[in-house]
Amino acid sequence: MPPKAVPAAAEYNDVLAQRKKAKRAEERRRNRPLYLFMLPGLLYLIANNYIPMFGILIAFKKINFAKGILASPWCGLDNFKYLFVTKDAFVMIRNTLAYNAGWIVLDLVLAVFIAILMAEIATGRAAKVIQPVICFPSMVSAVLLSFIVYAFLSTSYGFLNTAFFKDKPINWYASAKYWPVILTIVHVWQNAGQSSIIYMASIGGIDKSLYESARLDGASKWKQIVHITLPMLRPMIILMLLMSIGRIFNSDFGLFYQVPLNSGLLISTTQTIDTYVYRALMQLNNVSMSSAASVFQAVIGFVLVMLSNLMVRIVEPDNALF
Amino acid sequence: MAKAKVSQVKDQRGFYCVSLVLMTILAIFCVIPFILMISVSFSSETALSQGYKFIPQEFSLSAYRYLWLKRATIFRAYGLTILITVVGTGANLILTSLFAYPLSRKDFKYRNVFAFILFFTCLFNGGMTASYIVWTRLFHVKDTIWAYLLPGALMGALNVLMVRNYYNANIPYAIIEAARIDGANDLRIYTGIMLPLSKPVLTTIGLFAALGYWNNWTNGLYYITDSKLYTIQVYLKKLMDSIQFLKTSDLATESAMLAAQSLPTESARMAIAIIALLPILCVYPAIQGELIKGMVVGGVKG
Q1: Preferred mutation among A23, A29, A34, A168 to probe B, highest tally of B CBs within 10 A
Q2: What CATH number is associated with residue A230?
């Protein structure tokens, strides 16, 4: 029950207010050095993230660097219109989405498969070698990756041509039709081990007594996987799926640009939004097209991340990013 | 019943063996490309003209001799890469842990506001083009060493949040209170309590940051044209570019053009690539446990 207000309380309230004020002043005094701690990081965020956000304006302007970015005239959505009437736009969006869609499914199946096998041998000594080995390819930069791939695909010396296509060597870096397969193999080689780790950790967290009682009931290994492991992995699978859908407009720039050695003849199967943004900016000097594509990617990416997080919040509230 | 048991044991054994065999095959599949690289680097040019093989047909150290002749260029790029990796990783850890400290302080009034300012950068960005224009036209990092250290590389929001969560979970607020009552200021608390107690998480972040700096070549691609500022990755990239015209040429002209240009030989190029990989290869066995742990944490929230 709240205490009744009595006239004398006015004085008391004054004291309280004063104390509150003093406390707030004390808090402010205490908080002051904390801003200094954040200062370097804040400056970096402003320079690296927040100023470029205003750079989005570039996509809506007819850029003239002689006049400066701010003084350049507005052109509304013209840049986007020009971009989307080109065939480039169709090719890069198709490629980005198609590769991502295929790889999301492939990665998931492989990662879960590897994790189940890995969990089976986890207690053995071999696992201590195998696990680091299958994760090692993800430590390699795209440039090194391009050297490795070149060792296989070089027209005159490459392992594939000299070992299997001696009579009729294939000019890999000029034949676009092979690249969906090549890039998929390279992608899997580099990422399969690493992406299985998360599922391995989840399997490690499954209650062992579940398997124990299944075994007592005579369940085969296969049945244990189907009825225990997979259902227990379901939340993690859904989470990872949703998160990759949030990134479906993004691609691994190094894989699509450097591994095909920036070959112009391969554009139809290797161009993604990221490689287009780079090529338009640095090779064609077309700031308008480049910024239109990169803003398109950033905005759609933002919407998709928000949506996928919303979905995560519905199905797996504990794992929502925010 | 006994029969069922036996079949079950068999089933288990069988599954174990199948797993072991499949995983071993996968591991070999992961290693083989590196073996090809190493083999090429130790092969003589005449043997290579017959094609790349997994076992050197004619053992030769000529590639490494070539590297020694070119040591001025290569060591320069190598040294620069080491410098960038060390400075970048150090700066990254300092910025990350400094930013995380106020966010973890429950008596810091605006901690959620700043956490949001930080986190928003994960959700939205201005795109690569805007970023490039800001870094080159506003901050003029083009052809400076800053181009490797700053754009996109320094402080990741998710890392800061990871450190903040670590502080929150592992360093009780009471310790900080007690230290303050004893007269310690925030700097003293940060260096004396927060940093030493958060070593595990900082180690993980530091390793990933170091790997990122060592492997980074896109910043060089965007911002570096001066060959004096090539890191080893950018140097390798440019080497690949110099033979790029080959990919469109047909078989007959490829070797002729290679010979005409005084480019490093096939084996020498592979040797340089191996030199770039070597540090990772050397430290990997020691740090892989940390990295794998980091992938588990980063995989969910990242």
Answers
A1: A34
A2: 1.10.3720.10
